[in-house]
Please model this.
Amino acid sequence: MSKLLLLLRHAKSDWYSGALNDHGRPLNERGRRDAPRIGSWIASSGYRPHRIFCSDAQRTRETLELVMSVPDWGRHHPEVAYSHQLYMASTKRVLDIIEANWTDSGTLMVVGHNPTMDQILVHYCPEARSNQSGKLMTTATVAVIATANAENSRLLHLIRPADL
Model:
């Protein structure tokens, strides 16, 4: 039986917010608009995850909060773990987290940052194609991957806010 993996890159952040450091950078207006749109798509498409691993950076936390705030999520409350290990993490580190915590059939979501989200997507789905910016996982993009393992994965959807 295949499992589903959702990769979600944080929504657009505010580089001029006055945050003291990168970790504390919040979302900008566009990010606050795009995150609920992606959340509605995830929920209405039937891909609400059972477990979520999210970077503890401000922009990823805000993204996840807005994604799950839409009415389509209803009373669905997945198990959420915020981890500093996902902030500025290497591809190997994120793959280790996925493999260590994705032990059953079901849907797991990872909310993180580029370039790692691009690299994780290519690890599972080498056929994935970037947009004109050269990025796969632009801000607030979700990838839905069906997989039994890294050698047997299929990209079901790559949804960017501009697609909605």
Observations:
- The two ends are 30 Å apart (CA to CA).
- The chain is about 30% helix and 25% strand.
